[in-house]
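Hi everyone, sorry if this is the wrong subforum. Our group has a chain we'd like a structural model of before ordering constructs, and none of us has done structure prediction before. Sequence below.
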Amino acid sequence: MCACLSVSFLSLPVQAQSWSGKASYYSGSGRTASGGHVGAMTAAHKWLPFGSKVRVTNLSNGRSAVVTINDRGPFVRGRIIDVSKGAAGVLGMRHAGVARVRVSTL
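Answer:
Right subforum, don't worry. Here is the predicted structure as tokens:
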């Protein structure tokens, strides 16, 4: 006799979210919290799941970039996301180092 258990999970779409705050950027090599590496278009966020895609929009110039969350942070009060050096270039914030942004889940 087979005591088989069948479990199925319904995949529900994540509700799109958007919030504003300060972003900074980081560079370097080495492993991220997800076990990957800092990439051209990656970012660190405190609680979004690894692999999440978000659109980051620089509110001062309107430039935006889609990044993949693969690290944890930022660990500086008042900042909501750390983007990679490549993403910072696309956003036009490398010179300033910090920018006011809107982050939207995709």
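For your construct planning: The two ends are 47 Å apart (CA to CA). The helical segments are 85-91.
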